TrEMBL record:
Primary localization: cytoplasm
Location of the Cytidylate kinase domain: 6-217
EC number: 2.7.4.25
Keyword annotations of the record: ATP-binding, Cytoplasm, Kinase, Nucleotide-binding, Transferase
CDD domains from the UniProt entry: CMPK
Keyword Nuclease in annotation: no
Name under which the protein is recorded: Cytidylate kinase
GO function term, MF aspect, one: ATP binding
Gene name for this UniProt entry: cmk
Annotated compartments: Cytoplasm
Amino acid sequence: MKKLIIAIDGPAGAGKSTVAQILARHLHYNYIDTGAMYRGIAWKTIKSDVLNDALAIGNIAQDINIRLHYVDGKTTVFVDGCDVTAEIRTPEVSRVVSEIAQIKSVRDAMLKLQREMAGCGGVVMDGRDIGTHVLPNADVKIFLTASIKERAERRWRELTEKGFKVNLEELEQEIMARDKNDSEREFAPLIQASDAVLIDTTTLSIQEAVAAITKLCEERKGLV
């Protein structure tokens, strides 16, 4: 039976990465975290001190060596051979990644790499423009969302557990700003694909969200 290409899009904090990883493990598919790829570029941009230089950031995206190593439900992110899995999840990176992801040369570089990664199928890929731009012919398209309040609380718990001191109200404002940036950017904005299934996780557990998508995948397998 054909292995599916599954695209999961949605705003920051909707649970895409967690749901996608569990789904990939359940289906024995590869998981591709495109958000981690953009975070890798953001991390290197900060380290290179070129945050206000779009040309330099584009050059970083063209030259960077990003590798995602997915084993046993865990993704390790390597940038130029260095394990940056923890470093790319800091508030500092989160604050700048959306603006960096708006740069067309950055998205062009990642588009080519992401399509190569999807290859012959058997992948779950999540991001902002997977079903609309990166993999428009994906077999299953999901748009995962949740209320801003719920997304901010999830991010607050995640960061607090990692030892970061963050303000919940400030996180809500940052998420609102990121939603605006992602949805209004000129190139490949965050929108729900016309053939994507909307799943609101505000009141759903991770297990319930995974179960709903798994059901859709099983139904789709009989049609492709």
